[in-house]
Hints:
α7 crosses α8, α10 (about 275-280) crosses α14 (about 325-340) and α12 (about 290-305) crosses α13 (about 305-315). Helices cover about 40% and strands about 15% of the residues. The protein has a 5-stranded antiparallel β-sheet with strand order 14-13-20-19-18, with helices on both faces. By secondary structure, the chain is of the alpha+beta class.
Amino acid sequence: MEYGHLREDRRRLQLPVLEIFSALLLLAAIVVSMIELVQYSNTQESLQPDVTVAGVPVGGLEEAQAQARWEAVYMNQPVELVYNGSTIYLDPQAVGFRTNSDAMLGSVRSQSSRQKNFWLGFWNYLWRRPVGAITVPLDVTLEEGDLREYLEALAARYDQPLAEGGGFDVNTLTFRLSVASSRLDVDAALPLIEAALQQPETQARKVILPMVQIDAPRQDINSLRDALLTLFQSRGFQYNGADTLASVYILNISTGEEVVIQPDIAYSAVSTIKIPIMVNLFRDKLLVESEPDVAYLLTESILCSNNSASNFLMQVTGTGTNEEAMLREGLNQVSCTAQDLGAEHTFISAPLYVGEERLQFEAAVCRPDTPANEEFDANPDPYAETTAEDMGLLLSEIYDCAEYGSGLKAVYPDAYTQQECSQMIEVMSGNRIDRLMELGIPLGTRIAHKNGWGTETTGDAGIVYAPNGPYIFVMYTWERDLDGNNLPTIDSWVLLEEASRLTYNYFNPETAMYQRRAPINELTAIDCVTVSSSDQVNLNDINANRLDENGDPLPTACYGGAGDCRTFDGWNQ
Length: 573
């Protein structure tokens, strides 16, 4: 009995190990859970790990820290503006830019599982279950009015004002160039800067400001007129005097702007009358095309100012039973054609002088309906008169016909073709005298012109194909023949040459001529060059069979013109 009790007592004294161990485990689990709970609770003050706001990773940061980080990126980081190569740093806050941080934080909270269910979040935390990434887009406020005001102030400070051209140098006959400029394109810059303000990366926060290029304005066309008058005065030439007169007509073909100085004074037409003679000749379509001799005589008329050739060109357009009757009709045709085309003060009533008594008569021709400028008397030839304005008008109509199919064709739609008008210009392009208009234009620049001079009158009328666009220049001078030598002075030629250069410089200031080209012959013009026979005439290439690549006569050409062909002597040098 005693041994049995002993065994029972021993059984009563054994420890409940399993229970204790289980309790300890439970206690440990409770402790760990409490620790995890405390740690999880501590994370409630910070954002969950995978949070990106406005492109800036802020996971694990406290809300205040996260807000400070994205505000540093967007509100404190400047935008680099490049203005014409110079860098300007824009403070975002200076233009009313700010992040809407409260709204973005609210979006983060609304997407966070911690905010939705604490214990569900704690459970996921205990099991280290991944939570969904949170991405919140940038939410900003930008006062566009402030940004525009900033840019306008920037432009007002840094945009270079356009340098106005101005000033005419009478010594060089040049005009001061206007300087091209640029200005900030505020409207185009606004969206570029707005986009850059919303970029987190530094390299993306750079804007090359768009600029608007402003072409330099040309001086007012009236400044050309003023400069011409200054030129006349500086050379001692009284353009409206009792013993000297000058008239100028200039047309900017591209814009239609005109410069006129006494354009309606009647002058002796001299050899510029051969322009309307040519215009009238081409009214007969078949005459020039089918008659090589007529084309040849046309080159003699324009290139060599051959009066006999010019008289024949008027004769062949007329009708009648004999040569005189045909020539009389031709004179009338030339006069009527010119006036129909608007050259209302242009006429020729007698054959050009060739020394033959049989050609010394006056025909009944179309006369001007109204007199030319009666305030001034340039002692015009009573048998062949014109004005600077008339010649400018005829040249503009030839040009418009050649380029656009208008001009001459508008008045005589069935009489001219564009090719024929181009041929008129081509023939005049072959006229080279190395004086007057030509010396005021750079060598190699195309000029289609016809010149003339007489006892008291010098004139030149032409189309200049300049780098900045074509223009028409017409000028006549008159000097009373006080010395009785029946010749104009060389000074009047030089004046016309300088007026031509001044005009070229006005239209082409970038390639201005600082002095006129020196003439080959100081006291006269060079001799003309024609082809040696009518079958060699090419009205589409007037220099063909005439000149070599240097502009000198070919050995087979006629140096000196019909009836005076001779060996080339270097332009009478």
